[in-house]
Amino acid sequence: MAEPPSTTPPPDPETADISDTEAAASAPAQARSDRSPWNWLLIVPIVVPLTTPLFNHDNPRLLGFPTFYWLQLAFIILGVTTTTVVYRMTGRGERR
């Protein structure tokens, strides 16, 4: 028994992409865990600037600036670096 030829046209690639996107959007979202151990690294730029004995000195000076000022700038670099590392290592920096 031969089946009659199908009368439905082949799917349009643009329409197929939209229906796949809609299907993916309607599917239940996969549970995402934010409990990566890399997140603990974010404590470093919070705790380090709070340790005042680190910058409670006048010397050493860097380009004539007392320790307090150039160390504040170093803390900014520390914060940016650790945030970037955590962002990359937790997978949020991946291209989608």
TrEMBL record:
Organism of derivation: Catenuloplanes atrovinosus
Annotated TM spans: 38-55, 67-87
Keyword set includes Membrane: yes
Classification via InterPro entries: DUF3311
Domain of life: Bacteria
The protein's name in its UniProt record: DUF3311 domain-containing protein
Annotated segments matching region Disordered: 1-34
Transmembrane helix is among the record's keywords: yes
Keywords tagged on the record: Membrane, Transmembrane, Transmembrane helix
Regions of compositional bias (Pro residues) in chain numbering: 1-13
A Pfam family reported for this protein in Swiss-Prot or TrEMBL: DUF3311
